[in-house]
Amino acid sequence: MHARIVIVDDRSTNLRVYAQYVAMMGPAFSAKCFHSAIEALQWLETETADLLVIDYRMPEMNGAEFIAKIRSRTVGAHIPAIIITARQDRECRITALDAGATDFLQSPVSHIEFRDRALLLLGQHYPQQELKQSLENNRSGSDGDDKSSKSMLEQIIDTTPILINATDRNGKFLFLNSYQAALFGREPDQLVGRSISEIMEPDLVERETQRNNAIFETASSIPNFEEKFISEGIELIFQCNKSPLLNQDNQTIGILTTGLDITARKFAEEHRTHLALHDMLTGLPNRTLLAQWMRTAIDQSNASGQAAALLLLDLDRFKVINDTRGHQTGDVLLRQVAERLISALDSNGFAARIGGDEFAIVLQNLDDYGSAAAVCTELLAKIGDPYSIGGVEQTIGASIGIARIPEDGTSPDELLRLADLAMYEAKSAGRNCFCFFSPHMNHIAQMNAGIESDLRDALNSDQLFLEYQPIVDTTSGNYVGLEALVRWNHPVRGRLCPSDFINVANDSGLIGRMGTWVIEAVCKQIALFAEEGIELPHIAVNVSPKQFQYSAMCSEMLNLVSKYAIPRGKLAIEITEELLIDNSQKVHEQLATLRAGGIQISIDDFGTGYSSLQYLRDLPATRLKIDQTFVSRIETSSADRAIITTIAHLAHALNMRVVAEGVETEAQFTLLRTSGCDEVQGYLLGRPLSVHDLYNLFKDGAEPFTLAAQ
């Protein structure tokens, strides 16, 4: 049998690809392609198709509207239809499903996916059509005389697409219409007088007998129950009703059974339920179904005394892959990760995707929590194996947090919260590892929640203030810069440094407001000193990677520079290598905008991250700041001296100055100057200065720093 597949897509590239997929299926399959949905509908008025493949987004009508028009017709309404969509929107899919879509494929579609889905639907379609033809043949009858001999009522009953039968007290058929008889592959006359036990499956016979006996005992009907029938290998679902057949004396002498085929409706309902409970990208259960399974695991653990665990797994640096290789590559990677999670779990494990690059796993029937640790080790190994995506090898890691059931909690929401705390602890420990929840984490989380609330108040009530750490030129000793350091005068806890609150500011999203406050405070200070005739060197401000996620950051910073008339080069920002690797292209554009606006750029803590030389070559940076871990070992480690010298040569080749942080001894100062460092800062040069101390240092022109003066 030849199968004709109609493809409708307004994009020529897609049509060529899908037509090629059909050709690869073999000579028994052919493709008919249409750019226009309207033209396809017109063609289908006179031609037949065995399968429809429709793009969801088209200019004339979307895929759901196209399917609805097909389903409204008498001819062709039965044709299976695949919707292809790049969208992961659940409402989009439900709309298409309600219109009559049979299946979905996520774009981009591979040849294997296309072939497998097409063959599956065609394999279901042909037997259904053969059964339908058989039913129609049985309804019409093979002998015109037989048809004419039946009463009009009998003809109506025979041609109605509803199963109708009557049985006596012994379960023998008194009557069947042609539709019912065709389900068993017989003529009605062949079945009348025979028992249901001779014709139906044993399980069905048992259910039918129980229902019939109940009616004989009570003389009451049984309305609206569902029953399955198998006909020629096809499972059909009917909504049935049973009622008593009464004689003239109002005695029950038999049972009348009717049934309406609701197979298509049940499929749609099941598909809708699946969409509501599963992630569309990976096919894994979603957060809703996860909560149901967690409640089951909690109940079973309480009843059996066996341990269970919730694992929260977050992919490390997944955003880098999305940003550098695109969201389609990211989607492929997520699907492959999901497959590896499933392959690593046995029947006691349950995996779900709960959003983004975050997955949850429920482990049940554990002998001890060491078993959960073993599963985590296996998961990390499987996830860490290279992936091949589009012919390019890709690697990724994961961080896993573990909450113990019922030891740590007995509600799904609480367990998710605790596993999330443990997962972030794993990330803090270096990523690509797992960590069990501990009460200490909860204590820190509660304390951080308090800090977040207090920090909001601090931003509204002038509790924050700045201090300034001097930066000195190694050759001249002149003060060539300052680094602005934010402090918090907490009403209860007193003076707090950034290490006490900066992580909370980042995690809570307050870092944006804080960053804007710091930049404006620095601009105000430069302007106020200038009004008094005091010229400060450039002032550097630390900028968090999260601040670059706010689209208005660049414009806000440049507006403040303009508002306070800050000269070019007087304001600098310090960024970290983490920012460069996670957001290279987007950040490069923002940094170029700032640099063009006269703001200097320093790369802070250089040597501790993972940025490549290409980033350094392409970025408009003006300074590299060597992390103090190298500086602290420069007197005892020749390797660290060599690293610092190499960084200095590299920076100078890229026209950048080199700044060393954390300088505390004269020996360090001398070695850094010898190694090529242009500028230094640290306690040797002076501790962070208040505004008052800053005024005293620069009011008459700061004297150069000299080692002899120390």
Automatic annotation (TrEMBL):
Q: What GO biological process term is on the record, naming one?
A: phosphorelay signal transduction system
Domain (PAS) spans: 149-203
- On this chain, the residues bearing 4-aspartylphosphate are D55
The record's NCBIfam families line, in alphabetical order, gives:
GGDEF, sensory_box
Q: Which SUPFAM superfamilies match?
A: CheY-like (SSF52172), EAL domain-like (SSF141868), Nucleotide cyclase (SSF55073), PYP-like sensor domain (PAS domain) (SSF55785)
Q: Does the keyword Phosphoprotein apply?
A: yes
| Residues of the Response regulatory domain | 4-122
This chain belongs to the protein called Diguanylate cyclase (GGDEF)-like protein/PAS domain S-box-containing protein
Q: Keywords assigned by UniProt?
A: Phosphoprotein
Domain (EAL): give its ranges: 448-702
Q: Where is this region: Disordered?
A: 131-150
Q: Which CDD domains match?
A: EAL, GGDEF, PAS
- Which intervals hold domain GGDEF? 306-439
Pfam families assigned to the protein according to its UniProt record, in alphabetical order: EAL, GGDEF, PAS_4, Response_reg
UniProt xrefs under InterPro entries: Biofilm_reg_signaling, CheY-like_superfamily, EAL_dom, EAL_sf, GGDEF_dom, Nucleotide_cyclase, PAS, PAS-like_dom_sf
